[in-house]
Amino acid sequence: MMKVLAILFVSVVGCLKNYAEIKPLISLKVEQLNSGKKHHFFGYIGQCQTIPWNASGRYVLGLEIDRIDRMPNPDEASTVFVIDTDQNNKIVRLDKTHACNPQQGTMFYWNPLKAETQFFFNDRDVKTGKLFTVLYDLEKKKRVHEYRYDDSPIGNGGVAADGSAFLAIKYGRLARLRLVTGYPEALDWSRDEIAPKNDRKKQYEKHT
C-alpha cells in the first residue's frame, strides 16, 4: 500500500512540474478604461455575439447613468457613448436612450454587416411608450435608421450572426412580468391577453 502511494505521489509531483514548465498560449492585460462619478456599463455580454468592442477593437460601447441601484425612471435618459482606445481612452458621447435597464443595458449589438462603425440599441418614445430599435453610424455620428412598428412596437433582443434579422421582444410585457429585464412605461399593447398571438419575431431591412 505504501509503495502504491509513493508511486502516486511521484507521479503527481512529476505532472505538476511538467505543468509549471508549460508556456501559456496567450497573455492577458488588465486595464481600466474609464473613470468618473457616473456609472458606466455595457449590459449583456456573450449572448448571440454581444461584445462591447467593434471589429478592430478600437471602440468600446457603453451606457452612462446616474443610478445603478434601481430601475431607471421613465423620464430618465441614459447616454450612449464609445471609448476611443486610440485617443487615450477618451469617452465620446453620441446619443441618448429611454430604453435600458441595469441588467441588459439597451441590448447593444455591433451590426454584423458593418461591425466597424455601426451598432444597434433600443429606445422608447417618451410620449407614447412605443419601443423601437436604432441603427447608429459612428462615421456619420447619427442614427441612420429606426425600426418602428406602430401596430406592435418591439425592441431588439438578439441579432443574427449574418446580420439578416434580429429577434424582437416586447419589453412592455417584460416590464410588467419580469421588471428587471423590461423598460419602465414601455407600451404593452396586448396586456389583457394571457398569450398574445402577435408577439413575434420581426425582420429588419439590411441598412448599412
Protein model, in words:
The chain has two helices and ten strands, in the order H-E-E-E-E-E-E-E-E-E-E-H. The strands form three sheets. A four-stranded antiparallel β-sheet has the order 1-2-3-4, with no helix packed on it. It has a four-stranded antiparallel β-sheet with strand order 5-6-7-8, with no helix packed on it. It is of the alpha+beta class and 208 residues long. A hairpin with a 4-residue loop joins strand 7 (131-137) and strand 8 (142-147).
Query: Which outline best applies?
Result: globular
Unreliable stretches (pLDDT < 50, length at least 5) are 4-10
Number of helices: 2
User: Any idea what the radius of gyration is?
Assistant: 23 Å
The total count of strands amounts to: 10
End-to-end Cα distance: 71 Å
Structural class designation = alpha+beta
Order of helices and strands: HEEEEEEEEEEH
The largest beta-sheet arranges its strands as 1-2-3-4
Oligomer: single chain
State which percent range the strand residues make up. Answer: 25-35%
Largest sheet: 4 strands, antiparallel
Average predicted confidence as pLDDT: 83
